Structure formats: C-alpha cells, structure tokens
Recover the amino acids of this structure.
C-alpha cells in the first residue's frame, strides 16, 4: 500500500524535488522511500503546566517510531492550560481541535501520535483525529504524584476547593491556606484527582485509542516513557494496517467509555467531550445513552473528588485495566482498540492489588454511580448531575430559587449578609453556557454563601448552564440546555420560584403553572453583562456553537472531512 506521504515525496518531478529538498535537513534519502511518516501532535507548552513534560514523552515516542521503521515528526499544536486561560479553556477547545485537524490534513503524514494531558487537550486532539481519520493513537501525559500538606495527601483541584472553603469559613488561617499552595503540585503531570484530565485519559483508553494499560501512568514514572516508546512502534503498525479512528471509535467503544466513566466516577465534562468526539464520527450518541449505559454501574474507584485517594494510588492498585476487569460483563466484547484486539482481551491478567482503592463489585464505594440525565420544564434539552459527588439527601429536593444572572452577579451578592438564602434554597446561575459566557466555564459548583458555611452547611442544590471542574463536588446540576442565552427556560426563573430536583425520577422543574411561565419574559439582567463579540474566534464561536447536549462543538465542525487534499500551490 502506498503511503499518503508519497503523494508529496514520491516521483521525480519538480514537486517531489521541492518536498524532499526542504525536508533533507536531518533526514536521509531513505526517509523518502515510502516508509510511514508519523506526526507527533504535541501539546507541550510552558503555558500549559500539566503538559510541560510532553517533549520528553515525545522523545520516547520518536524513538519508538524510528525503531519500527517510521519517520517521526514533531508537530507542536495549540495547547490549552486549564488554570491560566481566560475567559475559560473551553472557549478554545474547538479552536485547538480545528487547528490540529487542519494542520494534520495539510501535511504529508501517514499517521499521528496525539500527546495530551491537561483537560481540553485530549478531547481536542481526538476530535481533530476523528475528523481527519488518519491512523492515530493517544499518549496521555499522566497525572502528577501526590502532594502532602500537614501530613495528609492533598489532591490538586479538590484540595483547593476544600481549603478555600475552610479559609472562608474561618477554620483555616490565611497563612496556612497560602502555605498549602507550594505543597499541592509535587511533580510534572496533570491533576491527580479523578478530574477531567484523568477522566479523559481513561476515556481515551476505554475508547480503544491508547495502548491498553497506559492511562493513569504517573507522569514521572519511567513506565510512561517505556509505553510511549511502544506507542511509537504501534503508530507505525497502525499505518501499515490502515487502522483509523473510524474503525476504532464506534458505538461499541463509546459504550465502553460510558461504562468506564461510571465505574471510575469520572468528570461530568466527559459527557460534553464524548458527545463532541462522537459527533465528528457520525456515531449517534445521546445524553440518554449516558444514563442508560452507566447509571446502574457502581462506583468502584475511591478517588477524590468522590472518595479519598489519588491517581498514583489507582495506578499502584492495578490501574484502569483492573477496574475494567471488575466491570467486564458491562463492556462490549467486540469493541476493538488501536492494537486491533478487543479491549476485553487485555483484562485477563488485570488484578486489583489494593481493594481500598479499587473496590469490588460486592463492596463498591457507591451503587448506581453513573451520570444522571435530567429533563423537565427547566431543562427541556437535558441537564446532568453526578450523584456520586452529591450529598445523598439533596438528590430529592424542593427549594426556593436564589437567582444570579452572571458570575459577576454571583460574586457581588453571594456573601451579602442580607441575601435571602438558607440551606434549603436552590442557587441558580445563568448566562454561563456555551454562548452566554461565552465558552461554558467551570463555575457550576458555585461557592456557598459565607453565612451558611459558618453554620456548617457544606452542600446545597446548585443549578446552572455552566460546567464544573471534574475535581469539584456537590449537589450540582450542570449543562442545562438550552442555556439562558439561547432562550432556555433558565432565563425565566425568578428568585423565590419553587424548584424541584428529583434525581431518582430524572426530573428538574420549576413548580409553576405552564401558563405563568409562558407569560414571562426572559430576564433582561441575564443579557445585560453580555456583550456579543464583534470579531475573531469569539464571534465565530458564539455564532456557531451547539448546546451542551450536542457536545458544544461548532455546527460546521460536526462530521469529518477525511484526509485527502487535492490541490497544491506550486
Ligand atoms: Fe491541567 Fe488540572 S489544571 S489537569
């Protein structure tokens, strides 16, 4: 089979001459004899702290590609650092996906190894690879090692939320709070809770898009480099076999990812990302699939934010394959991986070494732990909640709405001693969806009012069109669709309205007569802080972004353009 790269390098005409001549800087003539050219889509960046080490990973991948007879080509691509990017990294996920897709298609490559880590990077890379459909395999950059503060493990992300709430409640001094800052990030790697980065690494493996067994390997662990080398070798094989994302990413593999998401207690952000990836492939995945496939799967992994341990504990306890072994009966046996073999073929030798970290099916951390999909007159397009992260008593709750029209409004009024709020109230935040913010930030886990924290309240029902950090927790209803800025009923809610959350019944409603809601006008205040962008990416994004139930992809990026390019300029 002739390689795609030979369309550039093959032949002795002027074009072949130009393509080869400019690439000879370091490459011998044999590089152009038809062997696979493999790009390493590398999201290493000094401004993406979680991915800073990926150049080292890239070196091992390169060595693996070379050892298998391929030509490795480092391809730095758009990188997204969750903690730094303004207004929110999610605004740029589709930009990173689009840029990577286009640059993969435009270049003379036959396959690609995708290096990601921080939250949005693996989703963006998978979306890109799916739309180009060249042979592709992911290397997740791996979580950081556990940091400690005052002698106890400190989960990054989750620890910040806990410590900042303690500081606000007055049970932790400001000095101690700041001292914890240098203890949290102990090594290279991404967040070490079961946050979005860890979740998406596990999703990539459950989807079959990694070397089985690699997800969750800590970033500083030498086995990550060993597996990166093996992934480089595998990439060459993928090209020879012609195995593409469209052959791996089927409804069966999404089934496995959703089952895995429940068993690991993964981030709600995975719902948005998996829907977006599926949309690129024409795989018909709906919000309800998450509930149908995952809702009754128990939470087996005792990791923060739902539990107590951290990612290197999971790896020590047997890793993702040991978790999957426990739920093997719930996995699709025919879903294949990039190796060509089904995922379940890798579970035979998987073993749990510490059942306090990876629980058995008979003693799970929580029964029925998947993501619950809610509908009702407040969320006709759906909303999600992660019951595992919520206070059980709040999963069925009726309370008076306390409405905030924007994040700024929330911050301005939340700690007002005169705010009419109690522990039974339902905090409602709008203007934070894909269009409204724009970019659907992780602000859905609203902080609790200080006066309630001081009373010892640690959880309340919170509802928004935003997302929440995968490291966060609480009775938090997210991704309400349509969002307020897209005309959803969230824009109609007024402070004092009775809100009914019934997770067992999968309902989210305003308990008011339909006629009354129909007669209302959307809150003008929720649009007041929103200045529609006039140019640039934000303009394109706001004009074309889909709602959360469609993965918040851009409408014109749904689907695939393949990898053929028929024209050239010289
Ligand atoms: Fe990068 Fe959490 S900030 S994974």
């Amino acid at each position: 089979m002739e390689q795609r790269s030979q369309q550039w390098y093959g032949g002795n005409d002027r074009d072949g001459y130009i393509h080869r001549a400019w690439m000879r800087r370091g490459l011998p003539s044999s590089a152009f004899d038809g062997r696979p050219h493999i790009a390493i889509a590398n999201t290493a960046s000094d401004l993406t702290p979680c991915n800073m080490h990926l150049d080292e990973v890239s070196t091992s991948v390169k060595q693996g590609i070379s050892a298998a007879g391929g030509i490795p080509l480092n391809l730095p691509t758009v990188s997204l650092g969750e903690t730094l990017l303004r207004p929110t990294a999610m605004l740029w996920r589709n930009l990173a996906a689009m840029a990577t897709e286009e640059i993969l298609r435009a270049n003379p490559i036959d396959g690609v190894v995708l290096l990601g880590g921080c939250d949005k990077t693996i989703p963006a890379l998978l979306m890109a690879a799916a739309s180009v459909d060249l042979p592709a395999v992911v290397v997740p950059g791996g979580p950081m090692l556990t940091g400690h503060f005052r002698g106890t493990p400190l989960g990054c992300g989750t620890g910040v939320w806990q410590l900042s709430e303690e500081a606000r409640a007055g049970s932790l001094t400001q000095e101690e709070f700041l001292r914890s800052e240098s203890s949290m990030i102990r090594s290279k790697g991404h967040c070490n809770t079961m946050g979005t980065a860890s979740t998406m690494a596990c999703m990539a493996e459950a989807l079959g898009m990694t070397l089985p067994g690699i997800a969750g390997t800590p970033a500083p662990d030498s086995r990550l480099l060993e597996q990166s080398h093996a992934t480089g070798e595998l990439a060459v094989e993928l090209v020879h076999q012609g195995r593409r994302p469209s052959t791996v990413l089927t409804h069966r593999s999404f089934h496995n990812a959703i089952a895995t998401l429940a068993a690991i207690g993964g981030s709600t952000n995975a719902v948005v990302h998996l829907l977006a990836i599926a949309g690129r492939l024409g795989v018909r995945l709906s919000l309800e699939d998450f509930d149908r496939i995952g809702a009754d799967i128990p939470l087996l992994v005792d990791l923060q934010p739902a539990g107590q341990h951290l990612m290197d504990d999971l790896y020590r306890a047997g890793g993702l394959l040991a978790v999957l072994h426990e739920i093997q009966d719930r996995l699709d046996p025919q879903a294949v991986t990039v190796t060509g073999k089904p995922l379940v073929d890798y579970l035979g030798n998987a073993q749990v070494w510490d059942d306090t970290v990876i629980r058995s099916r008979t003693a799970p951390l929580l029964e029925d732990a998947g993501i619950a999909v809610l509908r009702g007159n407040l969320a006709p397009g759906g909303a999600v909640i992660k019951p595992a992260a919520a206070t059980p008593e709040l999963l069925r709750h009726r309370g008076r709405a306390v409405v905030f029209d924007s994040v700024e409004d929330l911050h301005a009024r939340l700690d007002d001693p005169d705010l009419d709020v109690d522990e039974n109230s339902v905090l409602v935040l709008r203007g934070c969806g894909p269009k409204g913010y724009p970019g659907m930030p992780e602000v859905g886990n609203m902080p609790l009012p200080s006066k309630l924290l001081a009373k010892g309240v640690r959880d309340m029902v919170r509802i928004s069109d935003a997302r929440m950090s995968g490291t966060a927790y609480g009775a938090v209803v997210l991704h309400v669709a349509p969002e307020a800025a897209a005309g959803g009923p969230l824009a109609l809610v007024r402070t004092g309205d009775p809100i009914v959350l019934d997770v067992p019944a999968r309902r989210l409603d305003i308990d008011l007569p339909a006629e009354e809601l129909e007669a209302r006008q959307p809150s003008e205040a929720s649009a007041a802080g929103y200045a529609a962008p006039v140019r640039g990416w934000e303009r394109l994004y706001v004009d074309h972004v889909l709602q959360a139930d469609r993965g918040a992809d851009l409408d014109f990026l749904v689907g695939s353009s393949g990898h053929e390019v028929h024209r050239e300029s010289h």
Q: What stands out?
A: The pocket of FE2/S2 (inorganic) cluster is lined by residues 50, 82-83, 118-119, 157, 190-191, 195, 197 (CB under 6 Å). The chain has 20 helices and 14 strands.
